[in-house]
Amino acid sequence: MKLLNYLDKHFLTKEQLIQATQISELQLQRYQDEGVMPKPSYKLNIQWDCESFFGPHSEKQAVEYFAKGYASWIGIIEAKQDFNSIYQCFANRYMAKIAQLQNLRYESRNPKFSSGISQHIEEEWQHFIEGTYGLCTRSGLPEDIAAKELASTEINALLAQDNLNQKQIHRLYRFVDLLDETSAYFAPHERSISSRTELIDIPRQEYNLGCAI
Q1: pTM here?
Q2: What is the pLDDT of residue 212?
Q3: What is the mean pLDDT of the chain?
Q4: HSE toward the beta carbon, residue 156, CA cutoff 13 A
Q5: Do residues 65 and 42 touch, judged by C-beta distance below 8 A?
Q6: Which of 107, 132, 164, 167 has the fewest beta carbons closer than 10 A?
Q7: What is the C-alpha R_g of the chain?
Q8: Sheet holding 11-13, edge to edge
Q9: Which tens digit of pLDDT belongs to each residue from 63-96?
């Protein structure tokens, strides 16, 4: 039940997504087939066994769960129509978020956020379409994806070093908080092996970083 409670709180079922966006199931499938709409982040195959006065009863149900942010993404698909325009919207929003964060002094020297950003965004798009980022970010949208990737990259770089000085610890603190703002909570059975535990919970404990304010 913990898994169902988590999914019901943080995601939309396919039926809820369709209702929220007023599209048909066939349209949703067509957008996925065209490679512009993410796949579900979770698929549950549920078997119900019931007993009552009338005797036992069993039935099976498949339920797909999508990130809540995908309701607005369907709006982008319907506004832009063609693949190139939709992809460019994703890329522009991703790059704009990176630029905004760098202006806020969340800098990175990793070339994937500068000279290699075009190839990097192509790779991020594939994860987006597969539904991966619907699982591991709060919204599943380009802005959260960009912030998560920037924060994760810099946290991993800092944790790879020995004996961090105070300036580096402060930098770690800021990026951990940034990741916390965008990272999903993860399903109960995933939490212990998730990036949230590895890159947020453990660093906070080891470096006494506290929590985001």
Answers
A1: 0.91
A2: 44
A3: 94
A4: 9
A5: yes
A6: 167
A7: 20
A8: 11-13, 55-67, 42-52
A9: 999 999 999 999 999 999 899 999 999 999 999 9
DSSP per position, the chain: -HHHHHHHHHEEEHHHHHHHHT--HHHHHHHHHTT-SPPPSEEEEEEEEEEETTEEEEEEEEEEEEETTHHHHHHHHHHH-SHHHHHHHHHHHHHHHHHHHHHTT-----GGGTTTHHHHHHHHHHHHHHTHHHHHBSS-SHHHHHHHHHHHHHHHHHHTSSS--HHHHHHHHHHHHHHHHHB----TTTGGGSHHIIIIIHHHHHTT-----
Instruction: Name 114's Cβ contacts closer than 8 Å, sequence gap at least 6.
Output: none
Q: Tell me the two tokens of residue 86.
A: 């939709």
- CA 45 to chain CA centroid, Å, is 22
Structure tokens at 160: 């790879």
